[in-house]
Amino acid sequence: MTMVSVSETLLFVAFVAYLVATFLFGGAVKSSAASARKSYKRWGNLAIIVTIIGFVANLGYFITRWIAAGHAPVSNLFEFTTAFGMLVVGAFILIYFIYKTPALGLFALPIAVLIIAYASMFPKDITPLIPALKSHWLTIHVITAALGEAILAISAVAGLIWLLKNIDLTKPSKQRFWMEATMYVLVLVLGFVISTVTFSVADYSAEYSYIDKEGNPHDITYNMPALFGMNESEAITDGAMEPLVEVPPLVNGKKLTTVVWSLLFGTVLYGLLRLILRKRISLVLQPLTKKANSQLMDEIGYRAVLIGFPVFTLGALIFAMIWAHEAWSRFWGWDPKEVWALITWLFYAVFLHLRLTKGWQGEKSAWLALIGFIIIMFNLIAVNLIIAGLHSYA
Question: What CA–CA distance (Å, rounded) separates 270 from 237?
Fold first, then answer.
């Protein structure tokens, strides 16, 4: 068995372990009041053991792929996203041993599972690094930024639990609407996975020629029916679907097509879930937060930002600017990824300002934590998949 095969097997083991641990944490959360202490020890301890086994396998995947590639496995979307999922679990394990709250695992692990499932839809091939990536700053900048985002993600999990527990989801309100909108966004990630698998099983492929923003001709292969065509695109494959819309060179038509198909599949899936459950998804999840301590969730959310914000600052801004100067001879260039890293940083700076000076706690703090994670995921998904820039090699 090659090192790459070992790496892929370890990632699968981690994925399965996280799924199993989610159900075990569910057992701890759903235990009756009379046996809560015993159930916590039985289910909670078993759940964290399985989670740690999964994390060790995940770490094994990371190390073996590093050995196989000869560089840190964070150079493309598959590698970065799987590393991000691993670090989310690592941050959760650390916080779990401090606060010992199984509800956090019940919501944090499914998010890590979604992230890894999302990552698995991208090409997994190990390719040589382009010249701009051949630097030790690849490892330092990307891993530190991902670690900061992972810790910030735990604040969003705590915020989500707080909101599900305390918002009245039985009456129409803005809070109920936005809580369900959050559930819809999570289902859209599943839509990406399902759409990618569907067209992969169908073995769909169509090749087109196009002109990039420098005026150079290129060929590109679509693995989904082309809803959006690249700049001045022409079909090479006989019988290939004509794109409905042609996009300017700044936008990647193939990736925009992927996003829209994901939206369509995700929306259909959400509709089916609502029909099957016969109630809002947030209302289905609410009973799972019944035993969560609201004050504790508020504290976890705040402390996660206190820790994650400086780590993100180092990785996504300071180390990134040092590497940018080394690779492109400038510290800052308003590249789309740079802009969204700055937006993310400014948002969490405002979060801490409002928390420390205006006393924004409880619901306001929980909503801010959730919005912050949505910004992080928008940067990971939409900015990477749609907008062309210097980071498009990822």
Answer: 34
